[in-house]
Amino acid sequence: MFGWEFPPHILGGLGTASYGLTKGMAQNGDMDITFVIPKPWGDEPKDFARIIGANCTPVAWRDVSWDYIQQRIGNVMDPQTYYNLRDHIYSDFNYMSTNDLGCIEFSGRYPDNLLEEINNYSIVAGVIARTVDCDIIHSHDWLTYPAGIHAKQVTGKPLVIHVHATDFDRSRGNVNPTVFNIERDGMTHADHIITVSNLTRQTVIEKYGIPAYKVTTVHNAVEPLSEELLNLEAPPGKTSKVITFLGRITMQKGPEYFVEAAAQVLSKVHNAQFVMAGSGDMMEKMIRLVARRGISDRFHFTGFLKGKQVYEMLKASDVYIMPSVSEPFGISPLEAMQMGVPSIISKQSGCAEILENVIKVDYWDTNAIADAIYSIIKYPAMYKQLQEQGLEEVSKIVWKKAGAKVIDIYRNLIGQQ
């Protein structure tokens, strides 16, 4: 598997989904999974997958001691793996910028030179493909499609690409032609394509010209909560109802509709607080919009939350809202439901295909969003019904079932060889 994020160091839903699916597949047994990321930090879970860092994979020869190597890369790779990779250097990359271990540096994030890192990642993938035996190559999202294609060319093994989103989702239709071409190239070279929703499947078929037989939907899921998270308590002395938006503050997520709905609710209700948890390129714009609507005293921006912080925020919430303009799936409503938080989601989201015990609205209909918020916080019976039935529903949406569907796709591809 080629990915770009892996917990606990994640910047969005891609890392959460990659982790959940990988663990769910391992729970089905008979799996040996190697997960490649640009830059591991050493504290990634390793109990169900072997983690390899592209930044620890030598592409040019440097003869240094293992003690020195260990100082440089810490505990992200064992010596045998490192030397196996070094033994499979297949060309002279000294003309590239490599460090004193012969490895290409990666940021582990989404830097300004992202396209350069994507290209370098695909080069490293060729080295890894020569030494890690595999039956299937699986690439998560567009950043890793070139790596998957290169690994397929080196090994001749089937390539599965996993479409977590397309640029049509991220850009509201103002597609970047470079990204579009990378996405389409990955889809064309893939032996099979997995999408996270039927909504995304239709985009792949209609916008990228991919035959329908080649594309299968495997909806995302959630991990069962740990005892620590299950036992989280709401903040003491809470007197206001808390309504939360949690996600990237970008145009794809529709944050302005959340603000407009908040203004409507706060014109009627005074014991309510609205929270926008996350970060993104629209944050300053949203701060200004909140100020113009005159609701700054009851509207809060937390910045980016991760790990346990996410669940602490949800535990403090009475309503969760995802007003996404285009959401391939959307795992966060499932996480909110796990914490017993009634959820309002846009009809334009992939998770709307499988969730019943939520309120579904058009993202642009701020009147409907405001009405739904008001109903949940005003009528205890409605709150309780959404809470209890939501908990029951989400308990059945687990990664092990999603993993089994992916394994079936693998078996079909291997059987066709």
Question: Can you walk through the features of this model?
Answer:
The protein has 417 residues and is α/β, with parallel strands linked by helices. The protein has 16 helices and twelve strands. The chain folds into two domains: 226 residues, Rossmann fold; 168 residues, Rossmann fold. It is 42% helix and 12% strand. Strands 9-8-7-10-11-12 form a six-stranded parallel beta sheet, sandwiched between helices. Helix 4 runs parallel beside helix 5. The chain is globular. About 1% of the residues have low confidence.
Brief summary of the model shown:
The chain is 42% helix and 12% strand. With 417 residues, it is α/β, with parallel strands linked by helices.
Q: Mind describing the biggest β-sheet?
A: 6 strands, parallel
Our count of domains comes out at 2
Widest sheet, order of strands: 9-8-7-10-11-12
Architecture of the largest domain, according to CATH?
3-Layer(aba) Sandwich
Number of helices in the DSSP assignment: 16
Order of helices and strands: HEEHHHEHEHHEHEHEHEHEHEHEEHHH
Low-confidence segments, ≥5 residues, pLDDT <50?
90-95
The proportion of strand residues reads: 5-15%
Helix content: 40-55%
The class by helix and strand makeup works out as alpha/beta
Oligomer: single chain
Architecture blueprint of SSEs:
Blueprint: H1 13-27, E1 34-37, E2 50-53, H2 66-73, H3 79-87, H4 114-131, E3 137-140, H5 145-155, E4 159-163, H6 167-170, H7 177-189, E5 192-195, H8 198-208, E6 215-217, H9 227-230, E7 241-246, H10 255-266, E8 272-277, H11 283-292, E9 299-303, H12 308-315, E10 319-322, H13 332-338, E11 343-346, E12 359-361, H14 366-378, H15 380-394, H16 399-416
Parallel strand pairs: 1-2, 3-4, 4-5, 5-6, 7-8, 7-10, 8-9, 10-11, 11-12
Helix pairs in contact: 1-16, 3-4, 4-5, 5-7, 10-14, 13-15
